[in-house]
Write a structure and sequence with these properties.
single chain, mainly alpha, Herpes Virus-1, three-stranded antiparallel β-sheet, two-stranded antiparallel ribbon, zinc, Zinc_finger_PHD-type_CS
Length: 147
């Protein structure tokens, strides 16, 4: 890999940053809106309880469930940010990855299963166009988890 290849790769990665920031910002705003809705509902229920009004326990349970769900979803999204790698186009050096047994190139994602035999996959090969919202497991590891 020559100096010009390295330079091209650095420029390509720098150009990718604004898109990554935009996607992350859009996701965060969507989650923040949902969080604010839940918080407002909790505030309303709290005010009712302080006034001595009767509150629906099922509604409280639903809000608790939603809050836990969004919290788990946020944690998973931040973990996923760490396992998605953008690699330069058509690089023919290093190890071969994925089910296609090709070199690392373009967007790649890691399987969350520590014992995965392949570990890294090309987005195209596994049918992904955008980073998944939750933890991602390859087809083989998903089958093993079901067994």
């Amino acid at each position: 890999m020559g100096i010009f290849d390295t330079y091209d790769e650095v420029i390509e990665n720098i150009q990718q940053i604004p898109l990554d920031v935009y996607i992350l910002d859009k996701r965060n705003k969507r989650i923040e809106k949902k969080y604010v809705k839940i918080k407002n509902k909790i505030d309303i229920l709290t005010k009712k309880a302080l006034k001595g009004q009767q509150i629906d326990e099922n509604e409280i349970m639903k809000l608790q469930y939603k809050f836990k769900k969004y919290k788990k979803n946020m944690i998973n999204r931040f973990l996923n940010l760490m396992i998605i790698v953008k690699v330069g186009k058509n690089k023919s050096f290093g190890n071969k990855y994925c089910t296609c047994r090709q070199y690392a190139c373009e967007n790649m994602i890691a399987c969350e299963e520590p014992s995965c035999k392949i570990q890294w996959f090309h987005f195209d090969c596994v049918g992904i166009t955008l980073p998944p919202k939750n933890l991602w497991y390859c087809a083989d590891c998903r089958k093993q988890k079901l067994v």
